[in-house]
Amino acid sequence: MNWADGKGTLEAGGRALEWRALGPSPLEAPTLVLLHEGLGSAGLWRDVPARLAEATGWGVLAYSRAGYGASDPATLPRPLDYMTREALQVLPEVLNAVGFQRGVLFGHSDGATIAAIHAGSLQDHRVRGLVLIAPHFFTEAKGLAEIARARQAFESGDLRARLARHHSDPDNAFRGWNDAWLDPGFADWDVSEVIDYIRVPVLAVQGTDDAYGTMAQIDEIEARSYAPVDRLDVPGAGHAPHLEAGETVLPEIAEFVARLQRMEEAGPEQVA
Q1: Given 45, 66, 167, 172, which is the most exposed site by the fewest CB atoms within 10 A?
Q2: CA pair distance 167, 185, nearest whole angstrom
Q3: Tell me, what's the pLDDT at 4?
Q4: d(CA 256, CA 45)
Q5: Cα 247 to Cα 117: distance, rounded to the nearest angstrom
Q6: What was the pLDDT predicted at 182?
Q7: What is the rounded average pLDDT for all residues in the chain?
């Protein structure tokens, strides 16, 4: 890939994946790697990449996982451990393809879980920190009920039409996510053990009115993490506080990134 092009496709996980990049290349500065939610894509971050690139001076990469945006379709049904497979098999190939040198994984919802699994399972010393927005580490009845309502909206409402504006194959995007979460076997899904093995600083962000998850997910990070955790509860925000309350959340992310950079410049012994 050529970072200077600003967008294109890369090969990872046996698929062609859409990517978009802003700011300096990985050879010139650290990189923020954005991992989208269960119905997201590279484009659905809206103006967040541009705002973060300006605020941090870092490069920002967003990519669409298989089945999303303009990326190749995913094979359905997705396995119930699809987030673990993305974290351990696909994300490393993405990072290698873009020439990732050092930086932060910034994930939202499913993307936050993928980022946490990557950091807690692999010794990837290029990853110096995590920004986790509305992560999932275990299922909650509240979230599953909301996902069931999303299925109704897709099948009999306007959700499919809205997704079609952002995904080449809206059925593949929706079914890959929704069918996995509503599979009876998914009720026992729990990856919270990965938190025990994260060794880089974490900024954990959760909207207090998130319909898909409760503050228990952030409590789990604080209770189990060996690494330092900064917690940001966003009053009144739902599942996407970086979009709903960007004026609050994005400066906190920029300061977290700046602090990591100051620690690194102070010397290796200062890096958690």
Answers
A1: 172
A2: 27
A3: 85
A4: 19
A5: 28
A6: 98
A7: 96
